[in-house]
Amino acid sequence: MGFEMIGAIASMAGSMMSAMGAMQQADAQAAQLEAEAIRKEQQAGQERAAAQHKAEEKTNETNRLISEQNAIYAASGGGVVGSAVDVMTKTRGRGALNSETALYEGEAKGRSLEDDAAIRRSAAQSAREAGSMKMFTGILSGVSGFAKPGSGMFGGGGGSDFRYAGPSYG
C-alpha cells in the first residue's frame, strides 16, 4: 500500500470523525434546547398555579371587604338597603374583575412560556436535521476525496470531482 493510499484512507477517516463530531454537536445542542423547552413548560404551569392562588386571594379579599361593609352598614342602624347594596354590589364586581384579571395574566404568561417551549423544540429538531446534513456531507466529502484521481484508489486516471451543491443547513 503506497503513501498516497495511506493518505487517502487517513483523509477519509478524518472526514468520518468530523462527520461524527458534527452529529454529536447537533445532538448536544438539541438536548439543551429540549431541556429548555421542558423548563419553560414547567414555568408555564407554575405561572398558572400562582395566578390561581392570586385570584383566590382577590376573592377572599373581596369577601372580607363586603363583610366589613355589611357590618358597618348594620352598625349604623340603616341596614343593608339602597345605596349600601349598590356599594356592596360594586365592590363584588370589582373583586370579580380583579380575580379574573389575575387568572388572565397567569394564562397569558403560561401561553407565552409554552410558545417559547414550542420554539425551542422546533430549534432542537432543526439542529438535529442540520447535524444529519453535516454528517452526510462530511461522509460524502471523505468518500469523494478517497475516490479522487491520484488518491491511490484508482491510480490517477479519470474520475470526477464531486461537490455537494445542495442547500446548506448549518
Helix content: over 70%
Total domain units: 1
Give the strand tally. Answer: 0
Number of helices, where a helix is a run of at least 4 consecutive DSSP H or I residues: 2
Strand content: under 5%
Q: Which whole number gives the mean pLDDT?
A: 84
Strand count, sense and closure of the main sheet? none
Q: Between the first and last Cα atoms, what is the distance in angstroms?
A: 37 Å
Question: What does the model show?
Answer:
The chain is 81% helix and 0% strand. By secondary structure, the chain is mainly α. It has one domain. Helix 1 packs antiparallel against helix 2.
Compact description:
This protein is mostly helical. The chain has helices at 3-75, 83-146. The longest helix is centred in the N-terminal third of the chain and has 73 residues, at 3-75.
Explain the layout of strands and helices:
Elements: H1 3-75, H2 83-146
List the main descriptive attributes of the protein structure presented here.
mainly alpha, 170 residues, single chain
